[in-house]
Amino acid sequence: MLRNISLQDFVIIQTLSLNLEAGLSVITGETGAGKSIIIGALGLLLGGRADSGVVREGCEHTEITGDFDLTPGAQAWLLAHQWADSQRCEIRRVINRHGRSRAYLNGQSITVQNLSALGETLVDIHSQHAHQALMRPDNQRQLLDSLHSPNAALQAVEQHFARWKALSEELQQLGGLHADRNAQLTLLRYQVDELNALELTESSLQALDAEHARLGHANQLLEGGQTALNALESESGAAVSALSLALREIDSMKEHDAKLLPITEMLDTALIQAQEAANELQHYVNNLEHDPQRLDDLERRLSLLQDTARKHQVRVEELPALWRDLLQQRDVLENYEQRAALIDQDLQQALLEYRAAAAQLSQQRALTAQHLSADITDNMQHLGMPKGCLVIDVQPQIEAKPSPTGTDHVVFRVSANPGQSPKPLNKVASGGELSRISLAIQVITAQSSDVATLVFDEVDVGIGGGVAEIVGQKLAALGREQQVLCITHLPQVAACGDQHLRVRKQADADETHTDLVCLTPDERIQEVARMLGGIEITQHTLAHAREMLKLSL
Predict the structure, then answer these.
(1) Rounded average pLDDT over 499-517
(2) How far separated are the first and last CA of the chain, in Å rounded?
(3) Is the pTM of this model over 0.90?
(4) Rounded to whole angstroms, how far apart are CA atoms 94 and 101?
(5) Under DSSP, is residue 62 helix (H, G, I), strand (E, B) or coil?
């Protein structure tokens, strides 16, 4: 549950620290005083979208902090995302005047996306505009599915749909239109044949470059080889002759000094290597060819490779890889029928599995709809619609195109008066009736929620009299199971609160600001009396307020 929420420089609130208790906490105040500002701050704290408009005029940033006791669901989320295990957590959101924000969980940075996911396990906010969303069929289906958490049947449908969709896309990409496939296959065959003629491998390209470099520099190689050969053995003072002379001299000296023996061995080795090098070099020079015709052939081949590489927009050294890729594409298309048959077989099996999962989900929805319809109808009849009923119609569309939410068409049908057959909600319900139906639904769905804190933001709009008193009693009953925070204009609802908070807006010459205080018993009498109406609060009004508060105990 939410223990405390603190605001600093938020909209028209300079500073506020609000301690909240278990049970039903009601927030009241004059119209325009800023009651919904608190809900807006809570929404931002739990990952809502931020903008610079929430920063109080003249300030650099706003800061919102909340202290929560953790539910099992929230603790499981923290563990799954590798946050430290804890019984409580502090969330802080800082938004600067440029609209940029930072979020922190227990002092560590957290992304807004993760904060939003965590927020769903902590607080469930029911908006005053929920009856508008209730008109949309997608929202009606989502409400039905939300009563199962986790919803294994829905997850199974999503998984089978993903498999079916992937196979469908693979089959489409493999074949496409018959004419397109034939045109692509013709082009691939031409390209593969063209590259086949080049006899492309990485090693052949390297050998081609090496041979071209050798023939292109044949004269330089021959001249350099002959010069090196002369230096070894042909010219006066050549290396071989010099080594032979040195070896003979040292060899004659070693008889007189044994220390020269190692030098003799080294000179002997050097002479042998020099002679072998001279022999190899002589063989190289003798066999070095100067072949202009072969050089022309190589240059024409290299030019063809360059042209082919430019045509395919790759480098020459990338041509072998391109050839292998085009070859694979050609083979895939040439074997299209065989591959397509295998994919189609898998696709049909995936469709069968999807249909089976969708049927199970449909059965679950039908059973849930039966129980939920009865509960909502019971609530409607307690909320001033004694003959009203709501029927949730789950219509399986067996042959419909697969979707990740199944193939059911979910319709909420309502009858507000006796003798009327249930009609779609958006066709028969008036504004006041929609408010009561929406509230009946929200009370039921809130009871199934596993979050610890429920927030109702003026969901009692359009309701009054004895129905308002029943609304207060139902919210109070919810408060005995979960923490409930309710913004209300109704004195009947306010009188049922375990904690009463009043929002007040004050203005002076320079600025406007809002504060929020927890009312004492006497102050609470005054506030309920104000809500009962009238320009002047009389003793009769005060007595009425005292009686309402006494009866709500």
Answers:
(1) 81
(2) 23
(3) no
(4) 5
(5) strand
